[in-house]
Amino acid sequence: MEGNALKDYGIFLLHEENKEIVLKVFINRGLLYMELGDYANACEDLKEAVLLSPGDSQIFQAIGTCHYRLNEFEDAVRSFNQVLRLEPVSVEAYIGRGNSYMKKGHEADLKQAQKDFLKAIHLNPMCMKARICLGYNLQTLGKLQSAWNQLTVVIAIDSKCDAAYEGRASISLQMGEIFSALQDINAALKLTTTAPLLTNRGVINQLMGYLSCAMKDYQQAISVDPTYALAYFSAANIYFHNHQFSQAYCYYSEVLKLEPRNESAIMNRAAKEDFEKAVCLCPFSAAVYFNRANFYNALKQYELAEKDISTALSIQPNDAMMYRLRADIRAKLGFSREAVEDYKKAISIQEQTDDM
């Protein structure tokens, strides 16, 4: 139906000469493109519209949103600047420009974003969107308590704002308050059930050592959204940790179907050809060789495992875990003297680490 509307708009523009009607067509078609997620075509139509009506701040607001969605953050900032020249008290423009600065990511941009979010809050102290954005901004700048406070204000304004609970859970987790993070993520899940929320709760459960609960969350996330790659990846990591390599292989494969260039999934998927791909992608990554050594060790291919763990140690020579693995492998190969030397080296490194 949307396709027919777009076709009709195109035909209409070929024949219509009235400026006001043409303006409305460009705006409506641009907004329809936006609704369909076609931000490039939406931007083109809205730019045509702004030529016909250069004083319309709403058109510039929509153009800024399109640039933001297209990851064209400099252009987005310029569009929101134009909105604010025309309408200096536009809360949405300050939020849009602030988010664009956030995406640029430099420290100066983050501070400018903070000013924009604060201005939006000054104009409308009850604007939850501005406070949530400010919370994430403060979190990015490392001001965790201030970020937590902002999201707590949002929850006081609206106790059913799932985004605020989710954001506060993330901050609590970063502050080391794992149980508080779990409480907030549970509160968010009572309001809405999404794959990202379930996956986040899985991560929290995993950090608390509740691996079976974490796996249930990842599986539920997959059932809610079978295209959510992070849930497959997180579940695969638990399978890998438990040495359930066939299950891990299947789940890493699902990640790669959804994200073919996910280097972490390629590196972790327990299959020889994938480790070879990982070596090509990350030839100086000790983790690649360490994971492949674990894989060969599980298959009792100890010579190949010993070769890979030795390569890993040549790249990362002061890793106690790697020395312990090589000691185990060498003991299985009957290299008793070398195994004892590796065990001693692992203990020495661990003692040095504990003393630091």
Characterization of the model:
- The protein has 356 residues and is mainly α.
- The chain has a domain at 270-355: Tetratricopeptide repeat domain (Serine Threonine Protein Phosphatase 5, Tetratricopeptide repeat, Alpha Horseshoe), CATH 1.25.40.
- The chain is 81% helix and 0% strand.
- It is elongated and about 90 Å long.
- The model has no long low-confidence stretch (mean pLDDT 87).
Helix and strand layout, with pairings?
Elements: H1 2-15, H2 19-35, H3 39-52, H4 57-69, H5 73-86, H6 91-104, H7 107-123, H8 128-140, H9 144-157, H10 162-174, H11 178-191, H12 195-207, H13 211-224, H14 229-241, H15 245-258, H16 263-268, H17 272-281, H18 286-298, H19 302-315, H20 320-332, H21 336-355
Helix pairs in contact: 1-2, 2-3, 3-4, 4-5, 4-6, 5-6, 6-7, 6-8, 7-8, 8-9, 8-10, 9-10, 10-11, 11-12, 12-13, 13-14, 14-15, 17-18, 18-19, 19-20, 20-21
The overall pLDDT average reads 87
Main sheet: strands, sense, barrel: none
| Percentage beta strand | under 5%
What global shape is seen? elongated
The total beta strand count reads: 0
Radius of gyration: 27 Å
Q: What quaternary form is this? A: single chain
Number of helices: 21
Written as H for each helix and E for each strand, in order along the chain, the element string is HHHHHHHHHHHHHHHHHHHHH
**From the coordinates shown, what is the CATH architecture of the domain at 270-355?**
Alpha Horseshoe
Which segments are poorly predicted (pLDDT under 50) over 5 or more consecutive residues?
none
- The name of the CATH topology of the domain at 270-355 is Serine Threonine Protein Phosphatase 5, Tetratricopeptide repeat
CATH class of the domain at 270-355: Mainly Alpha
**Distance between the ends:** 66 Å
CATH homology group of the domain at 270-355: Tetratricopeptide repeat domain
Query: Which structural class matches the secondary elements?
Result: mainly alpha
Give the helix level as a range of percent.
over 70%
